Automatic annotation (TrEMBL):
InterPro entries: Bact_Cytoskel_RodZ (IPR050400), Cro/C1-type_HTH (IPR001387), Lambda_DNA-bd_dom_sf (IPR010982). The keyword Membrane applies. Signal peptide: none annotated. This is Helix-turn-helix domain-containing protein. The keyword Transmembrane helix applies. The chain crosses the membrane at residues 120-138. It holds the Pfam family HTH_25. Keywords: Membrane, Transmembrane, Transmembrane helix. It comes from Prosthecobacter fluviatilis.
Length: 194
């Protein structure tokens, strides 16, 4: 009886003197997935795409030919390149073709950075604009508040009939007419508490 693909993988791993955990560390494939492959449990992967990728990667690591097992796996729902080619020929390309003058990202120089369009700069600009508007409005309101006189500082009407004070006050070398203003005061007598 010929050995199964899982048995070939197990033999190749053991021949290299590796444990499942060592192989998982080297390939970065979870150890449970390696156990699935070595026990021929392809259905445990959930997706044949993952199964194909892990089988290809693990068999390349161990030096085992995986073409026979990969050809034996059933096709996916769309059938791969064949169906994609059919769809693009009948419906047109799904992706826009890259511009002829644009170099591929792989051919870009090592120091260059690809531009990624993000809404963050626009949002930041709007935030700064709103912040500046609020600051200008607050400055205007503070200025307007400082320009209004409180009601207590407004001059009471004073009659000019009263005689001028005997010594006129001088401010900066000019005589200033001053008048005394009496405010009505009411005094309340304290009531003793018994």
């Amino acid at each position: 009886m010929p050995a199964t693909f899982g048995q070939l993988l197990t033999e190749a791993r053991e021949k290299r003197g590796l444990s499942i955990d060592d192989a998982a560390h080297e390939t970065r494939i979870p150890a449970q997935r390696l156990r699935y492959m070595e026990s021929d449990n392809i259905a445990a992967f959930g997706s044949l795409t993952y199964a194909r990728s892990f089988i290809r990667q693990y068999s390349e690591f161990l030096g085992v030919d995986s073409s026979s097992i990969l050809e034996g796996l059933p096709e996916g729902a769309l059938g791969g390149e064949r169906d994609y080619r059919y769809l693009t020929q009948s419906q047109g390309p799904w992706l826009r073709e890259p511009a002829a003058h644009t170099a591929s990202p792989a051919a870009a120089p090592a120091g260059s950075v690809r531009s990624i369009k993000s809404p963050l700069p626009a949002a930041l600009g709007v935030f700064v604009f709103v912040l500046a508007c609020v600051a200008m409005w607050g400055s205007h309101m503070a200025y307007m508040h400082s320009q209004t006189e409180p009601a207590a500082l407004k001059a009471l009407p004073v009659e000019d009939d009263e005689p001028a004070s005997p010594a006129p006050a001088t401010v900066g070398g000019t005589n200033v007419k001053t008048k005394q203003v009496d405010f009505p005061v009411t005094a309340h007598k304290a009531v003793p508490v018994n």
